[in-house]
Amino acid sequence: MKFRLPIFRREATATASSSQAETEQNEGASLPSNIVKVKTMNEALRIPACYRAVTVIANTLSMMAIRYEKIDDEHGGNFRPHMRGEGAHINYLLQVRPNRMMIATDFWKRAAVNILCEGNAVVYIDRQGLSIRALYLCESASVNPLTMKYLITYQTEHGRETRVCSDDEVLHFKNDHVEDNGLNGISTLHFAADALSLTATNDQRAIMVAARGGDMKYILSEDRKSMQFGASRTLTQNQKNTQKSKLQEQCERGDQIILVSGQVDLKPLSDPGSTQILLEARKQDTLAIARVFGVPPTALMDYTNNTYKAPEQGVLELLNRTILPRKLAIENELNAKLVGETNFGRMRFHMDDSYLLQLDPKGRAEIAKLYVETGVWCPNEARLSNNLPALPEEEGGNRHFVSTNLRPLNSDEFSAAPKPQE
Questions:
Q1: What are the tens digits of pLDDT across the range 73-86?
Q2: Taking the model in full, what pTM does it have?
């Protein structure tokens, strides 16, 4: 989705002193030509660590089913999925097929990618009267801060459509950081621009080192010995530049034999530690990208400094620090636009994260055992959590039990003599 806010931009609120200092710095020394500047989303996603970070967050958000729930006064007064009438249709749109062109998993995954890489994801709510017919992810959108009107473009099964709509007709999901007016989200790639450019530059250098068979530098100078034996006079600057260009081409091609013509002397300048520095820099690049996106390095397949005692701890850190804030933001937008103040407290939209918190079989058995022994679950509820058939009523499948194994130390049951058998 293309939004009005560019991905990479210079802050408009920069002070005059900082702008002047930056101008002086740019005039004093320019960046080398081999610096790779990452300017677009496609260029950013070509970096493995960035691609993995975006994929992990997008896949995690798309795995959480969005449920439309209502208060069930007949069964304890808690929230349960609203699966009747319009509620069932809304749940179908959110969890199965928002429109005829996309399934729900792809729809929410693409929306999460737009939030991260573009800063915004706008969804058009196609209504027919009071019912919702479909949800469409917009290709481009812009909002007028004075009228709060949106200009959107989206693709339907009948073709591309462009329209102006009000704020209540769209779902606008913003990134973690927004502009000062709160209307537009700012792309994560904007804050990661320097880290991404450094990573892309190191990747390009690594490719060049691999192509040349090593990281070698040379010193090209005039051969003073040949001049002592009546050789031609000193080379002009143009001749030196020509020799330098020819040698550079041979090095870039990875030639094993370098031809030197004229009265010049070529000496190799080897730096054995440069390759090791490059490898270390690439490791730091992954850590920098992980910090910006809020993803544990292990989620980016970097197990260099893995300190997690169990895989569940890494998942919990990702959920608590990165996924949970985005989950709440999505729920708040859905509740604000589709529930409203009238039904607040009686209905809600909830992203179910139970699938992400699943334990291994041993952990699930221990939790079920604890819940049954403390009376939280009946046996049938424990069996239902493991997709097992329910026990009949006469076998106590729906009865709640409490463990009574604990006794005081001075209990009579420890000292009382057994009763004589009659």
A1: 776 678 889 998 99
A2: 0.74
Give residue for tokens 């996309």: 102
CA 301-214-297 angle, to 5 degrees, is: 15
